[in-house]
Amino acid sequence: MSERIDTEVAIIGGGLGGCSAALHLSRRGVPVALLDKGAVGAGASGVNFGGVRRNGRHLEELPLAERSLVDYWRKLESWIGSDCEYAETGHLKFGRDEKDAAELEAYAEQALAHGLKLEILSRNALEERCPWVGEDGHVASWSPTDGQANPRLVGPAIARAARAEGVEIREQSEVTAIVQDGHGFELETENGILVRAKALINAAGAWGAKIAAMFGEEVILETVTPQMVVTEPMPYVIEPVTGVCGGSFYLRQIPRGNIIIGNGGGGVAELDASRAYVVPERTLETLRDVVRLIPRVADAHVIRVWTGLEGATPDHTPVLGPSRTTPGLFHSFGYSGHGFQLGPAAGAVLAELVRDGKSKSEIGAFGIERFAKPEEGSGGTARRAPNRRS
Amino acid sequence: MTAHRILIVGAGPAGTRAAETLVAHGLRPVVVDEGQESGGQIYRREPPAFSRKGRDLYGFEALKAARMHRVFDALKERIDYRPATLVWNLSRGDAWLAGPRGPERLSYDAILLASGAMDRVIPFAGWTLPGVYTLGGAQVALKYQACLVGKRTLFMGTGPLLYLVAYQYARHGGEVRGVLDTARLGQGIAALPKLASGGRTLLKGLYYHARLHSRGVPMRSGILPLAAEGGAALEGFRYRDAKGRERRIACDALAFGFGLRSETQLADLLGCDFRFDPLNRQWLPEIDADGRASVERVYLAGDGAGATGADAAELRGELAALALVKDHGGEVDERHMARLRRGLSRLTRFREGLEAAFPFPRHLAGGISDETILCRCEAVRAGELRAAARELGADEINRVKAFTRLGMGRCQGRVCGAAAVEVLAHCLGREVSTLGRLRGQAPVKPLSIAQATAPEEAGGSEKAA
Questions:
Q1: Closest alpha carbon within chain B to A40
Q2: Mutate which of B90, B449, B456 to disrupt the A interface (most A C-beta within 10 Å)?
Q3: Which of A60, A188, A223, A313 is deepest in the core (most CB within 10 A)?
């Protein structure tokens, strides 16, 4: 062993949720060690689209999303010492026809009951407010309080704040073995670190199901690889973050002018090798789709494409809560491509679960027990919901 | 083996020889090249309407240039040639093209990458002023468009290209304000034993040097660049001479460069293993003596797999093509391959001598002021990189990229990457080999969305034969 760390809480995974949990716990005086197999904030939480949106989310996620927005995103500077380019630019979700219009209207009505106010923009209103929208843009729902941030900065910034509070962060430290006994957990990493902790948080992203399986909890986690594109800087005209019914793409422009475009997935994933590949056909398909809705994008050059590895649950809703089998173990993974916005609040919830045994937030819908097979006991049933990504 | 679909990327000396060799073995490769015509950078041809003499365009290399062009032109009927076409992405088995035929996906069984090299740059104050060019850029302006980049041009940097381009400018009536070399004279003398293996190439270098000298061009070695100066455009260049005195030379153009760096993105996209090459101070795809990469059916030749120059590129192109033929069950002349390898190892020794004579001046990295722009695409200054390293904990070049945007612009770090990692190494007191490398990501050059999303031309996805 090259190093031994005795601590209260061990966290596997330095994404937004893991880093936020570390920061929350350490600010409550709890000793924490965080292990990441790569660099903190460099996985899905660092290479995602950067949308900070509530519009279009599963209704069950709205309370947590609200907490993330109000308590963290709007206060990033005071929370972690950097605004990470967060900007409340609003979010527009486009519909291409009457069927989409009905979907957007129905959602707006349900969302209102959860405190999210959306405005439906007709074609005429769209033409007036967003002259850059092409003929495919038939209708849109407008959420003025959504926004965007630079994903490359957020995770590392939370980690820096956590480190400053005394969190032991070890990067390039993949956990290879976990032993649990009456006193807690003992983790070994491939680079020879031994961590002993009373509680364990599984925030391992696309690898979260593997950790859960070590404790007899099966979650079917599909590895998804959203494909991202960024263009050269173009005149800055598209202020809001945009998405579209059906989720074929999402797009935002930053004040520097670059346009960032993503799709739902379709890359090649090699989970064991931690590698993902962009599939050019999918990139081109997505771009064709984009150009039909926002024609001016055709004038730009693509300067880079990338992808990453993310875990999606069968109902595309995260696993967030205590383990069903193991006291002291807590899960936070399977955000299914829309965890960036939720990450900061998820960390707050995890800290509450560890310290207080319960969370202030309503997280009942995210329990891992919903994926348990009937013979395993709790009888939860997996729900299916439309796949919506940020 | 004629059924194999072979793709060659690049039509410079390596790509030309590779194509010639494959055709000689009964194959019909597809040759995709970014240039309007074959020749690569070194033997770049002038536009059709121009009619300058070869000697004017290529100097001593006129005969070689003519031969390379003849070899390629004779192949045109026997290959599938795609000029002015960008290979913007590669996956194992498929190439993604953008060119005059529209977007296209082309399947292949084996691929030979001859992607060449570009100028290696170290930024200095004022290097983004209008009027400042790389040596390669200044040479292209002359070779292709018969233009000089300025009326009074100053040359600065190190390496053989410094003297060649200065000589070519002088010969074409440009006023050469001086040739400033960051290498010290003693370094050239110490390197003589290895340089001697260059034979004629060494003599040519000495000739350019002598001719410039006889024209009264000021030649200085061991200089330290300070700043390119001017308002809207370049007016002069300030430097410190070997004795430590500050000097200024008035000029309206500055051409600079510090040797070459290999264009390795395509090999990276294919997942080839890379190793840090201390000679080139660059991560290069691993190849065996004949140019086989770590990924099966991938071959590398020419300056794209380590800069060894045009003569070596011809040998490497032929050798890699022979390796490809052999691996696909074809008959090859093993003794000829052995001869090619011997020739190559002689030229490699020469290259080592050149590097000793004209070392990459990495010591400049520490002296780049915080205000100097490193990444010109994203306007990232050296101070931002240093702050990311010291305050944000960026201890690897991709972390620097994530935190600062360095290397995220149109050129994807092709221009600034080499210098940025030197600045990072100096800042952290670490070796560049321990700081990672900017990962290659598609598209290897900016890809027009209009062009890429245009409907594929009917029959456009024909297979390489």
A1: B399
A2: B449
A3: A313
Q: Do the Cβ atoms of A280 and B91 come within 8 Å?
A: yes
In this structure, are residues B132 and B230 in contact, taking their beta carbons and an 8 Å threshold? no
SS3 letters for A86-153?
CECCCEEEEECCHHHHHHHHHHHHHHHHCCCCCEEECHHHHHHHCCCCCCCCCEEEEECCCEECCHHH
For the whole model, what pTM was predicted? 0.93
Among chain A residues, CA nearest to B446: A303
Handedness of CA B419, B421, B423, B425 (dihedral sign): negative
Report pLDDT digits (tens) over A198-219: 999 999 999 999 999 999 999 9
Q: How far is A374 from chain B (nearest CA, A)?
A: 44
Nearest chain B alpha carbon to A153:
B403
Q: Are B39 and B12 in contact (CB under 8 A)?
A: yes
Tell me, yes or no, whether B153 and B254 share the same domain. Answer: yes
Which ipTM was obtained for this model?
0.91
Nearest to B291 by CA among B258, B246, B325, B247: B325
CB B87 within 8 A of CB B96: yes
Angle at A260 between CA A318 and CA B89, to 5 degrees: 100
Segment B5-48, tens digit of pLDDT: 999 999 999 999 999 999 999 999 999 999 999 999 999 998 88
| Domain assignment of residue B317, given as a range | 6-118+261-330
B309: number of Cβ within 10 Å:
21
* Domain assignment of residue B336, yes or no: no
Which A positions 144-173 lie with beta carbon below 8 A of chain B? 152-153, 156, 160
> pLDDT tens digit string along A327-378?
999 999 999 999 999 999 999 999 999 999 999 999 999 999 999 876 654 4
Number of folded domains that form chain B: 3
At which of B200, B226, B258 does a domain end? B258
**Among residues 3-62 of chain A, which lie with CB inside 8 Å of chain B?**
39, 42, 46
The residue of chain B nearest to residue A46, with distances taken between CA atoms, is B402
